[in-house]
Amino acid sequence: MVLIKEKHxxxxxxxxxxxxxxxxxRCVDGLLAMxxxxxxIVFFWRGAWHLCNLxxxxxxxxLTCWVSVMIGYTGALTLNLTQFLLTKYIRSHNAIAxxxxxxxxxxxxxFTSVNHWRGVWLTLDYYTGFSFFSAGMSVLLCMLLLWGLRxxxxxxxxxxxxxxxxxxxxxLAPTFFKSQPSNAGKFLLDITxxxxxxxxxxxxxxxxxxxxxxxAIFPEDSFSSALVxxxxxxxxxxxxxxxxxxxxxxxxxLDSHPYAKLLxxxxxxxxxxxxxxxxxxxxxxxxxxxxMPEDHRYELGQWVSYAIGTGGCMILFIGNTNxxxxxxxxxxxxxxxxxxxxxxxxxxxxxxxxxxxxxPAISDPESTTKNGKATxxxxxxxxxxxxxxxxxxxxxxxxxx
Length: 401
Prior knowledge:
Elements: H1 19-55, H2 61-81, H3 83-89, H4 95-128, H5 132-149, H6 184-216, H7 222-253, H8 258-290, H9 298-315, H10 346-353, E1 369-370, E2 373-376, H11 380-384, E3 390-391
Antiparallel strand pairs: 1-2, 2-3
């Protein structure tokens, strides 16, 4: 979902001398994302969502919708507007203070994200109904708008995107126009557009795909429906993990044909969206069926689900993946970078163990290879999402992060 975070990882291998090792690590990344990280994230979201159902005017559907809308939009606007202030005053040189304050921030923003998502979702359900027409139009209209705005990558979530908790850029999120607070008016409009328009469209697409599956896949058999959704999600995630470098090579060759590249990239992204929604839905329904389903333990079960998801993600340093923020753009990256999956985990840990030093990315990419050694490169979009980028450009143009 998301998220939602902008892609920043390169599409080609580098920095690891053994490409076979890198391929294996990327496969491990994919497996962890599918079978460890995504279940934990779903545990958090399911627990938080159901707790909102329990505590936010449970007997008044219209009021609970609008309260979540208010919490979601107000919180998202506030935390996005203050991202540079938070970055300035919550410094990483005081490790203990940073760890505490950054985790409090993550918990608050994640709570905001759940309400933001829940408010949009339930409001659409309340006013347009639960039907093939409502869900189908939600997908069709919002997806067309996102494609036209070249912002469909804003919908990507686990297992295709994992945001590791790194100190640099921890509080920063990409906006649609990439504005800076030095231009206060433009920055305010940019944040407002990103939150009110792009995020709303993204949540609406997720709601539409999810409800189409509710209506079309064994609607009378929750277990079979969940199982089919899991199979769809796992199949797409597996296929895309294995094919990403081949598709990235094709995308890189289309750099001189921007519209063809954009079509390829947006098709690839839509497959990720369907895969992510399906896997989330499958895990969510299985949790509903098997994780403390008894009525007398329902409330406790949601708190336990929330605690497992929150604690597990923070222990594994992926707590930021629970926060849905930021805008991704389609077709603006080169060398196939728009195709590569942003779910690096073990590959990054391996690089740290190999004493590969990362530099927080800050500006536009410029890299060269001097005497066969990799040089560090800055990249604005990577900086915004709190990533580190190292680029090694060799004679054949191959790059990797």
